[in-house]
Structures are given as structure tokens and as C-alpha cells.
Amino acid sequence: MKPIVLLPILFFAMLRANAQTGNTAIIYQTGHSYTLTVPEGWVSDSLSGISMMLDMCFHPDTTKWTKSPVVMYSTVTHKTDSNQTIDDVIKMDSEKFRESSPGVLVEKEKVIYTYPQNKPAHSVRFTNEAYKNYESVAYIEEKYHVIMIVVGSRDKEIYEANLPAFKRLTQSYYNLEQRYSIRP
Predict the structure, then answer these.
(1) Residue 21's pLDDT is what?
(2) What is the sign of the dihedral through the CA atoms of 104, 82, 78 and 80?
């Protein structure tokens, strides 16, 4: 009889421990689903990015999305064909940045690996001092699409101070469709 009593206690203890390590956002859209664990000091926001077609938004727990000096979000781009590589997607994205933000500096950064799936997230930094725009994008390739996790700020110091949170968010990416891919 004692093991049955201990089981609910252990279950609630595990839930409490998980709540202390951060909440996990489940992102489920047509053609893709994944999770991201919210970094400490941040909150997830599934509503603020709907009009911008963002899968999930994140901002410091002391601010709102619209007032935050730094934000993070995740979104997806579908590959144009089955031969398109992640390098093609990064190149197209970089060209769009250069067109919309003349003078932007594009720098490839160190690859971030997700845990536990060990997927490479190719990180690129976009900086435009003239427009005070600081952004890093982590690109994670799946079969039919590329997940993009983004951190951005108009303040260089705030941006750089939040790069560790961006790295933790990127590392937490977990593809829920790892056994199969759904064609959008």
C-alpha cells in the first residue's frame, strides 16, 4: 500500500521541480511542431506575434512584448523545394536584410547544438549601427522547413546581455516530429 501513496507524491514533486527549471512552450502549426524551454527571467507569449505570423514570442518577465527593449521569437520558413539547403535559406534571409537595411553587417557565428537531439543551429548576427538594430538568428533545418529562433534589440548592451538567454532558448529546441516529417 505504501508504494501507491508515494507515487502521487513523487509525481507532484517532479512537477514542482520542472516548474522551477522553466516552462516549456509547445508550438504546433500546420506542418511542424516543436518545443522551446523558456529561459529564466523570460515569459512565453503566444498572442503578441500572431499578426506578424510568429510561432511564439518571448520577452523578459518584467515587461510586455510591445514595451520590451529586447525580444525573442520563433518562426518557420518552408523550403521552396526539396533541394533547398539551410545555406540557401540563410543566403536568402541575408539578402533580404541587406535590401531592407542598407549597411547591415552579416556575420556567421558559432553553431549552437540543441539538447538532447544535437541538431545544429546555424547562428547569424545582423548588425546595423546606423539604425541601431542588433539581431541574431539561429536556423535549424528540418526536412521541409527551417525553424528560426531570433533575438533582437535596438540597444547593443541589452542585446549582448541577452545572448546567453538566446543560446539557452536555441539549445532547448526539440522537434516533436523527429520520427516523421509532415509536408505542408
Answers:
(1) 38
(2) positive
Rounded to the nearest 5°, which phi and psi values hold at 110?
-65, 140
> What is this structure's pTM?
0.84
All residues at 6 or more sequence positions from 154 whose CB lies less than 8 Å from its CB, including other chains: 69, 132, 133, 134
What pLDDT, on a 0 to 100 scale, did the predictor assign at position 15?
34
Q: What is the DSSP string of 113-155?
A: E-TTT--EEEEEEEEETTTTEEEEEEEEE-SSEEEEEEEEES-
Cβ density class 55-66: b for 16+ within 10 Å, e for less: bbbbbbeeeebe
* pLDDT for res 83: 85
| Domains of the chain and CATH, by start | 23-175 (3.40.1000.10)
What pLDDT, on a 0 to 100 scale, did the predictor assign at position 30? Answer: 80
**Distance of CA 45 to CAs 34, 74, 98, Å?**
15, 11, 29
Instruction: Kindly give the parts of the chain with pLDDT less than 70.
Output: 1-22, 178-184
Task: Say what the pLDDT of residue 38 is.
Answer: 96
Residue 91 to residue 74: CA distance in whole angstroms: 19
Number of H helices, E strands in the chain: 4, 11
